[in-house]
Amino acid sequence: MKLYFSPLACSLATRIALYEAGIDATFEQVTLTTKQTKGGGDYWGIAPKGQVPALDLGEGRVLTEGPAVLQYVADLRPEAGLAPAAGTYDRYLLQSWLNFVGTEIHKQVFAQMFNPASPPEAKEFAKAQFPKKTGVLEHRLASNDYLVGDRFTVADAYLAWALMMAGRIGLDLASTPALAAYAARILERPSVARALQDEAALLG
Question: CA 164, 166, 167: angle at the middle one, nearest 5?
């Protein structure tokens, strides 16, 4: 199994999940601006969408889209508890939070702020949406230690990446104390801290 990733991109969440579950995998870095892998391969030929993560499962099977990849990894090791059982309410709650992080934070906020083609007005608008999104998370985490149930899941892995990104660009969590406390705790989790350290080292 091989994870195609870009350092500190959203593929970090899959690395966290792999570490958390204790699943062996290899990792190949992708330069997203050129769509080249570190080994010199054409990433378009591996993942026609051109985005990370992509999880090569062998036998010509490559899985893309972060929420799908995260659930696949979780289901490889159900005993790790990274996703509730299929068909349960909590499994759909997991999918709900994966979609929230993916669409409301990742795409509506970060994708606009980091897109070099976005005009300044679009970047400022996206930045202004962040407190609205964190307000939803604050409401959830004020009475819950994690997004789903009483344990860390792949939804928390995805949110850990988002909160790391928020910190790197100076987005403030001061108005959301429960979320801020969650961020401090989750970013110190061994699997998260290890993934962050491994990928930050690649940036020099």
Answer: 65
Q: Which of 79, 82, 102, 100 is nearest to 90 (CA)?
A: 82
Position 86 scores a pLDDT of 96
Q: Which residue ranges form the domains of the chain, and what is each CATH number?
A: 2-80+192-203 (3.40.30.10), 89-189 (1.20.1050.10)
Backbone angles phi, psi at 56, to 5 degrees: -85, 115
For residues 56 and 11, what is the distance between their CA atoms, to the nearest angstrom? 13
Question: How far apart are alpha carbons 115 and 180 in whole angstroms?
Answer: 26
How big is the CA angle at 175 (ends 169 and 176), to the nearest 5 degrees? 90
- Per-residue pLDDT at 168: 87
Q: Do the beta carbons of residue 25 and residue 18 sit within 8 Å?
A: yes
Whether the CB-CB separation of 3 and 11 falls below 8 Å is answered with yes
* 146 token code pair: 């994690």
The pTM of this model reads 0.96
How big is the chain, counted in residues? 204
For 118-151, how does the pLDDT look when each residue is reduced to its tens digit (9 = 90+)? 999 999 999 999 999 999 999 999 999 999 989 9
- pLDDT tens string 27-74: 999 999 999 999 999 999 999 999 999 999 999 999 999 999 999 999
